[in-house]
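To: structure subgroup
Subject: Chain for Friday's discussion

All,

I'm putting the inputs and outputs inline so they're searchable in the archive.
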Amino acid sequence: MAAKVSCCVVGAGAAGLCALKYALEYGMEAVAYEKYNEIGGTWVCTEHAADGCATAEDVHSSMYDGLRTNLPKEVMDFPDFKFPTNMRESYILASDVLKYFQSYAEHFKLLPHIKLRQEVVRVRPLHGKWEVLTLDLQSNDYTTQQFDYIFICNGRYATPSYPSTPGIDLFKGHKIHSHVFRRAETFKDATVLMVGAGRSGMDITHHIYPYAARIYLSHHLQQKPPITDFMPNVVQKPVVERYTENGAIFKDGTEANFTHIVFCTGYDLTIPFLSADCNLQVHDNLVYPLYKHCINIYHPTMCFIGLPIYAYPIQLFDLQMRFVMQYYSGKLQLPSAEDMLADTERDLAERRERGLPRRKAHLVGERQFDYYDELVALTGIDNIRPVIKKLSKICGGKFLYDLQNYRKTAFKVIDNENFVQFKLGEV
């Protein structure tokens, strides 16, 4: 940096740690505010009610007992900091992922720059800087500080989303969101409706089927339904038409009674601390207008790290940070606000043409590598390693079609282009 500038990072999960690391590397005076009492964000498993269930407001993490990653660790590490070489398994425990992020913070000497138990209450532009109001959750004192740049890294998996299905208020049984699921034995002898067959829906079904009496797995996957034959007490059902006092009627006209509902229906994006002066709309999981899903077009010294969904998070965080730092360091100049807005509108129009709803305006999915290519082409930064893309072709969709066995496969990256795979237990 030509001159010493200051920056604020909101959050000390994986995205926040990555942002802090690059800010310091580029010579910024940086501080990260973390609401909770340790770093790691969603990977910090928070215990709560004795029965393993609680209201969604009680917890901030979605981690549960026995959770293993649904992506191999070989696509989950930062390019400049690898998982320990003695870890043979690829699909590892959440606690191992948390240890990795803690080691990352220690390795890059981030901890002195992180303030724990500090809630960001308000962010607003003021006289060409960012005024950040924080609440110390131990002393209840408020503090304001000004920064030249701000990185929003508060995550998007803390506010559960529920479907507005008719009759849900009539149902007399237990209702929870996957966000607060903690232990499989909670569902011993229960009859359960699992709403959603995404990654969490399939994994929690797999966790609880040895305990539950019966599980109804409700989803909208018609052409390629998940394989559940190995779970004999799991019955697949279409989307719920409406709920009754003791169960539900499904779209195909069939009915079922059950004692519990687990909503595996995703999350609503919330950024409550942004003032109206930030000139951003946050509605229906869209933050608008952002250039390339990260830079605030009207206040370009604010950026968001980690908004795109269905991506490899660590690869995304690292590449987005290297992208924005090309501009924030002065190496490159951003396009005009008009050009950035036109680019954003083109992106949104293309998504509408593909039939994507507003809620999926930040979805990248199978096109995540096209998104990475865009950022690379604009700035000349290094792309993610080709081996990551090759691994994605092997790993994609396994939670639906090989849930019983896919975590028994392990991978070893040989170099930037090549990897080998093997079954655990093989020499």
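Points worth raising on Friday:
Confidence is low (pLDDT under 50) at residues 49-54.
The chain has two domains: 6-159+267-388, 168-263.

D.
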